[in-house]
Amino acid sequence: MSELLVVASKVRAYLKEKDAKMSGDLPEAINKKVMAVLDEAVMRSKGNKRTTVKPQDV
């Protein structure tokens, strides 16, 4: 398992506000999505000759 970028307790709290529960493997699935979004953002920023990832890269 890679390092988690998402905080499971925050995800759980958010879902609780929505009257939903969290499965144990949900944080890892969200983590994979977040990493994919970040990887694409890095590629876009580098394509624009920047090392800083900006909101428009997402």
What do you see in this structure?
It is a single chain. 2% of the residues are buried. The chain starts with 7 loop residues before the first helix and ends in an 11-residue tail after the last helix. Helices cover 55% and strands 0% of the residues. The protein has 58 residues and is mostly helical. It has one domain.
Rg over CA atoms, rounded to whole Å, is 14 Å
Helix content: 55-70%
Number of domains: 1
- The stretches of 5 or more residues where confidence is low (pLDDT under 50) are none
Instruction: Provide the structure class.
Output: mainly alpha
- Total number of strands: 0
What would the principal axes of the Cα set say about the shape? Answer: elongated
Distance between the termini: 24 Å
SSE run: HH
Reported for the largest beta sheet, the result is: none
Q: State mean pLDDT (0 to 100 scale).
A: 95
- How many helices? The count is 2
Brief descriptors of the model:
mainly alpha, 58 residues, elongated, 2 helices
Q: What can be said about this structure in brief?
A:
The chain is built from two helices and no strands. By secondary structure, the chain is an all-alpha fold.
SSE map:
Blueprint: H1 8-17, H2 26-47
